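Technical note accompanying the year-one report. For the benefit of new consortium partners, we illustrate the data format agreed upon in the data management plan: each record pairs a sequence with a structure-token string. No post-processing was applied to the example shown here.
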Amino acid sequence: MRNFEILFDQGERSELPEGSFGSYGPLGFPPPPPQRPWIFANFVQTLDGVVSLLGNTPSGSDIAQSPEDRWLMDLLRAHADAVLLGTGTLRAETALGRPGPRGPVFRIVDPELLRVREKLGRGRERNIFLTSSGKISLQRYAAFDGQAVDPFLLTTAPAAAALAPQLQRSPHVKVIVCGEGGMVDLEPAMRLLRQQYGIRYLLCEGGPTMYSNMLLHDLIDEKFLTVSPLEVGLQLPEAERLAPDAGAAKSPLGIPLRPTAFAMGGLDKEHAIHWRWLSCRRVGDHQFHRFRRLREAP
């Protein structure tokens, strides 16, 4: 793995000794808000803003093509008490048989960063999958086996009731219910994660829909963004149009469109979300940014 070149960094210093994070340099976080976790997101995108190529190459690694980006994902997971994910990512990866027929387990793979996590006192890794519908087969996915990472479901009361027979066969899957209707109530859900489960730092690895909903509810405090030196365009090439992309947005001509990070409509100038550029690193032609949300426009 190559060294990160620090162009500038105005973030907090780490609570661990200098050099704990290798060539990345210092990484610290502010104290979390009193009522919910400090929530940080992580994305990789092309130069033209695409976060998934869709088709048969839907994951962030297909855009990043960078071992440093994969290592940074582990570094961020090491700092998080839990990782929040959507079930769409799980389905897409599993449909393509990656890394196996029952899909991925979202966990730290670097042994050094597992030790960093231990020094930070973050405890056993936890994955929280958000599903408002509850339409998921727990036995189908390795992520719910609970061997390496503790699995949680964040869902609604009706969905939890529908999942009850499956949960009897998977009692190690913890269920967090927050919402009586068709959607998870995000703001009270984040309070539950803090107050009942002690989650102070939460990494959002959800797809664009989850991220956009969290952002519009003012629940994203900062984002780490890797920019890969690629341009691919929004329209999905015809040869790449597969069944898993059936839910993708469409152009006026019905062509599936690749997503950007912000997937929920649009905001006017007065309601645009503003960010402070907190740090920037580079490895070769890849950029590694960190942004913190500004609650008031500059």
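Partners are asked to follow this layout when depositing records. The first helix runs from residue 60 to 64.
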